[in-house]
Amino acid sequence: MIRLEDIQVTFNPGTILENRALKGVNLEVPEHQFLTVIGSNGAGKSTLLGAVTGETPMVGGRVLIDDMDVTRQTVDQRANQCARVFQDPLAGTCGDLSIEENMALATCVVKSVAGACRCRVNVASCSKSVSAF
Ligand SMILES: Nc1ncnc2c1ncn2[C@@H]1O[C@H](COP(=O)(O)OP(=O)(O)OP(=O)(O)O)[C@@H](O)[C@H]1O
Ligand SMILES: [Mg+2]
């Protein structure tokens, strides 16, 4: 389960470039459910995902994964609970693999941390992703 409580993200706060990208987002994704976030360019989809994974600094709100408050955890600390496939193919996504296989890699990372990787993707075919692990 993922729960977002009043998520707020402001880029370049206090400057002429200040941009309040997320102004209090509340969201709950129960276990085993899928969620598709749809929005126009610049709506805040990537920012929202970055808030979940810890890559995007928040100025307010809380992120809970399986009832654990991970708001103050770093990306590395959250890596055993959440993973992502990046939109930018140069930011960690393996171009030799399909989108599904790339998603499976993320699952593999999570399961690997838990000590029981059942990922069937041949990660050896993607040296870039393997080295990123
Ligand atoms: N690192 C950043 N620094 C400053 N502003 C940013 C940064 N990242 C995103 N923004 C701004 O935050 C807002 C949300 O951007 P975001 O990338 O989350 O949108 P998106 O919905 O993912 O768009 P796209 O469909 O193009 O991927 C936009 O106004 C964007 O310009
Ligand atoms: Mg985006």
TrEMBL record:
<protein>
    <submittedName>
        <fullName>Methionine ABC transporter ATP-binding protein</fullName>
    </submittedName>
</protein>
<keyword id="KW-0472">Membrane</keyword>
<dbReference type="Pfam" id="PF00005">
    <property type="entry name" value="ABC_tran"/>
</dbReference>
<keyword id="KW-1003">Cell membrane</keyword>
<dbReference type="InterPro" id="IPR050166">
    <property type="entry name" value="ABC_transporter_ATP-bind"/>
</dbReference>
<keyword id="KW-0547">Nucleotide-binding</keyword>
<dbReference type="GO" id="GO:0005524">
    <property type="term" value="F:ATP binding"/>
</dbReference>
<feature type="domain" description="ABC transporter">
    <location>
        <begin position="22"/>
        <end position="111"/>
    </location>
</feature>
<dbReference type="InterPro" id="IPR003439">
    <property type="entry name" value="ABC_transporter-like_ATP-bd"/>
</dbReference>
<dbReference type="GO" id="GO:0005886">
    <property type="term" value="C:plasma membrane"/>
</dbReference>
<dbReference type="InterPro" id="IPR027417">
    <property type="entry name" value="P-loop_NTPase"/>
</dbReference>
<comment type="similarity">
    <text>Belongs to the ABC transporter superfamily.</text>
</comment>
<keyword id="KW-0067">ATP-binding</keyword>
<dbReference type="GO" id="GO:0016887">
    <property type="term" value="F:ATP hydrolysis activity"/>
</dbReference>
<keyword id="KW-0813">Transport</keyword>
